[in-house]
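thought: fold this chain, then report.
action: predict
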Amino acid sequence: MKRSTFFSFFLALAVLGSVSKLYAADFDTAYVSKPFVKTAIKFLPNEYKGVWRGEDGLIRIANGRIILKKVHIPKFKRDVRVSATVRLTSAGDPWDKSGSCFVIPASSDINMLSVAMEEKEYLPVDSTKYGHLVGAVLTKEYQPAIEIMRFMTPFGVGHFSRNDSIGHLRMPVYIDGWAPYVEWQDDVTQLYSALTGDVYVGMYVDTWTAKRYEASLTITVRESQLRRDKCPQRHVIPLLNTVPYYKQTYPTIFASHGLDISFDLPKKSRHAMLYYIVTGHGGHNGGDEFTQQENRLSIDGRLVLNYTPWRTDCAQFRRFNPTSGVWLQKRMANYITENGKRGHKEIEETIASSDLSRSNWCPGSMVAPYRLPLDLTPGTHHLTVDIPHAQPAEGDKMNHWLVSAYIVFEK
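observation:
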């Protein structure tokens, strides 16, 4: 090897080493907020009336089904990464429920809290377009809540995770014990602009019992060595959120028609990205919870996403579901005999409700947003969300779709 080549080789190694050290120490924890720590979420209409205020700024609305707290996340001068961690345990509720962690847009005077305080009212909507979906769609005067994380509570994790005689009999052979809690973490850096300053963050569980859940939320901001003015600045436009937080009905509208939302991209905006969170519900055999349904998203009349949200990996969450209903199912099994040979015979195997495939969720799972890059110019655009074969709600068959969407763009 020539001397110059030899020198260049080790110079390259030195540079790579410096770069790797830079990236290894690229982001340092700069801010941690814990607005909720084992905070109870439960339905107590006689105790939690109107707006209930507790210690440390805790607010309860929707009869205790929603907890809120104001946080202040600074605007850092350097580039950041933001993560949200949610931990949940049951303190007596044995069922799976839909849940949502969210932020109320600071620039929207009308929101669930101002409505609960009777200072504002949700704006009336055109029933031919939106049915009874008040407080769900972006308008010039209103911005819906932005989901930080959609999650589904598991069956009874925590309170029912005892490995006693009953719990042991429910336990399948492929897990070594029931989990004491469930925890999810997600990178939510794209929401940094919506989280900075004084904002209200909240958590919601669709519970109708006094048997509570205990929920914790941690928001962590890590700062890099890169100046923010040298990095793209992201901004958020909340478009749609059909989660029925406060004085809102279950969104059954998709059984009749899709939803159309208008939004404006400002001048010099670029690299627009659509974040789409969706889960189907119904709870009965053959309902939208257990049937695959096509989701069709269009921008300005042009189809941009034809997507069937479906999860087939729910058995991996079995350790978080100690109170899931369990059935026996017969099947032929191939196995290794005592003398090391192969045999087969009919066996009975347990199958739990939490194992079953569902419309983009499992009991005990987080629901990751679908990210769709959009080639859009500044100006007015229209998003259409359609679930053409969504089933109607009839009697106790409460078919509905929880859909939220927001745009993130750079400027």
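thought: worth noting. Confidence is low (pLDDT under 50) at residues 1-25.
final: tokens above.
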